[in-house]
Amino acid sequence: MSHTALRRVIVRLLHDPVLADRLATDPTATLAGADLSLEERTWLVAVPAAAWRTDPDRPHRVLAALRDEYAASTALAPAHAERFFRSTHFHGAIQNDRGSLAIAFGLHMADGADARVVALARLELATAAVRRVPRRVAPSPPGSLRLTPTARVVRARGGTAELLAAVRAGNAPPPLRTGEEPFLVVRTPDTHAVTVEGLEEGLATLLEGAAMALPRAELESLARSLGASIDEAVQVVERLVADGLLV
Fold first, then answer.
1. Assigned CATH topology for domain 136-247
2. Hey, what long-range contacts does 37-46 have (CB within 8 A, 24 or more apart)?
3. Residues 26, 28, 32, 38: is their CA dihedral positive or negative?
4. pTM of the full structure
5. Which tens digit of pLDDT belongs to each residue from 119-129?
């Protein structure tokens, strides 16, 4: 029997009352794609829909924990946050073992219609991602460097920094501007706290170029193409290595 798949379907049903109602009316479509035996499908269909809602506060408890990591975006879009348990991001994370529920929630918050919420959620999603990187970071192949997994370059709409500050302070959220601005989301190696700071465009492009391990010479060449002299390119790469951003 496919116990793992069965447990995952149960978790989804316990958090999504809409899915539970669909199971009662169209079990074939509702359970499509789930690796269940006929016996397991029969057992699930036999459960009254009301039984999946005996603890209606269960989704709210999970959501409360997720809000801790996505305080800014959920403050602007509480209704969208509530829809998480009906989203493909939630069901995919549970049924298909796509990783952290916090990451799935961030993808859901960034998949909305409000550009302000999307901008904030992208920063909070990167923050959640770097928090979950293992403490020991594997080195790049000899002679190569890459952006450390404990850092992310995030491009968001202009005015996102001011928006984030306003929401955190409880002030009225200002509108976003046109264009993008790059941010560095990085986990500090000593305290493991995560910081978000603005980046200069050239440095952002250089770090984005190092998303995959590259020979040091190629990174220095990229720095020169961005306007650095030969000596400056060497110094920039060395400083990024010293700061732990390139490993």
1. Outer Surface Protein A; domain 3 (3.90.930)
2. 37/1, 37/2, 39/1, 40/1, 40/2, 40/5, 40/6, 44/6, 44/9, 44/10, 44/13
3. positive
4. 0.91
5. 999 999 999 99
